[in-house]
Amino acid sequence: MVLSKKNIHRISLQFILPPLFFCWVSVCAKAHNGPPFPIVTDKQIGTVKIAVWTHPDIGLGTFFVLVDPLPGTSVPNDLKIDLGIQPTSNRLAEVVYTMQRDNGRGEVQYNARVEFDKQDFFKVRVHVQSSAGSGEVSSQVEATPQGFGRWDLLFYLTPFLAVAALFYHGVRKRRKKLAAN
């Protein structure tokens, strides 16, 4: 086979376009689908430092507050944490959830399951209260659909469509070769 400029161009496109396509898909799929992520880190309130992590799925989202005592202190036994959630548009009133303490794995962690009604930005307010001090921290988070939303089917079908396209391409090539003989 003689490599002309046209053939070189076609071959280079065959090797360049698929990686570019998959890079584009990964950028488009930036909606959260994976492990929890932090929205507040290392905020000191009283004698503790907190970090707020979330997995904000539409329906039931989860929030985790990790509590670390400052050096030379311990986490107060009377520590209470409340979580307030409200859409940034103020279309609904703030809903306050009492977080439940979880002493698993040698860490003090507070958990809450939160109702998100639709994809939207929400204000997050964490109120920490104990005999050693109290305070609040605020942040914002976007509730996202589980997975990639409407694009789930297309995203998960892509490998199968690619195999089908390669099979079709091979069959066409073989038929042309047989027709030429």
Could you walk me through the main structural features you see in this protein, from its secondary elements to its overall organization?
The chain is of the alpha+beta class and about 180 residues long. The chain has a domain of about 110 residues: Sandwich (Immunoglobulin-like). The chain is built from 2 helices and 9 strands. The strands form 2 sheets. A 5-stranded antiparallel β-sheet has the order 1-2-3-7-6, with no helix packed on it. Strands 5-4-8-9 form a 4-stranded antiparallel β-sheet, with no helix packed on it. The chain starts with a helix and ends with a helix.
* Rounded average pLDDT: 84
* Cα separation of the termini: 17 Å
Structural class: alpha+beta
Beta-strand portion reads 35-45%
Helix content: 25-40%
**How many strands in all?**
9
Instruction: List SSEs in N-to-C order.
Output: HEEEEEEEEEH
Assign the CATH architecture of the domain at 37-143: Sandwich
CATH level 4 superfamily of the domain at 37-143: Domain of unknown function DUF4426
The value of Rg in angstroms is: 26 Å
Which shape, going by the Cα principal axes?
elongated
Please work out how many helical segments DSSP would assign: 2
